[in-house]
Design goal:
It contains six helices and four strands, in the order H-H-E-E-H-H-H-E-E-H. It has a domain at 2-46. The chain has 180 residues and is mainly alpha-helical. The radius of gyration is 41 Å and the shape is elongated.
């Protein structure tokens, strides 16, 4: 008991060693932390037993608890707001409408019906390679042809940049260091 009593911050109003032996059912010695995290002096406290029951509550108990709640009546109203998914789908649809180019029209005077449709199919495939696509979240992605052009331009510009740097450094440093 003495070891347990020494762990508390002493309260001059009570003798902890004596109180430990006198505690009744539902009583405890309690020490809280202050705002700095330091323990405050020990106090004698009564512990309130939990109000519980074994098993589920009845329908009448549930109604009584809900009606006495501060939030009673607030969550009973059903609200169907527009979800983020619905907003993104609408935005993607708008972007798809604004980025769609008019389809390529084949002249009405095609010499043969089979060749005209073949030509229209070929032109449709070629024009599809140049049209941007709209992703599932509404982002506009480059077309295949644009991606290939950008890649080729990056490769060419990096090659030209390397040659320029080699030429400038070669001129400044006086040529190659391999000659001996």
């Amino acid at each position: 008991m003495k070891a347990a009593a020494e762990t508390f911050r002493q309260n001059p109003k009570l003798k902890v060693e004596t109180v430990l032996t006198e505690l009744a059912v539902g009583e405890a010695l309690v020490s809280m932390l202050d705002e700095n995290g330091s323990p405050e002096i020990v106090e004698r406290a009564k512990i309130v037993p939990p109000r519980s029951q074994v098993g589920a509550i009845t329908a009448d108990q549930r109604k009584q608890i809900i009606s006495s709640s501060v939030l009673a009546g607030h969550y009973e109203n059903v609200v169907d707001r527009e979800s983020a998914y619905e907003k993104l789908q609408a935005r993607a649809g708008e972007k798809a409408q604004t980025t769609d180019a008019p389809p390529v029209a084949v002249s009405a005077a095609a010499p043969e019906g089979g060749k005209g449709s073949l030509l229209a199919e070929a032109l449709g495939t070629v024009t599809a390679a140049f049209q941007p696509t709209v992703g599932p979240r509404g982002a506009i992605h480059d077309s295949l042809a644009t991606s290939m052009t950008k890649s080729a331009m990056r490769a060419a510009s990096s090659q030209i940049g390397r040659q320029l740097v080699r030429g400038i450094l070669g001129g400044i440093l006086g040529g190659s260091s391999r000659r001996r």
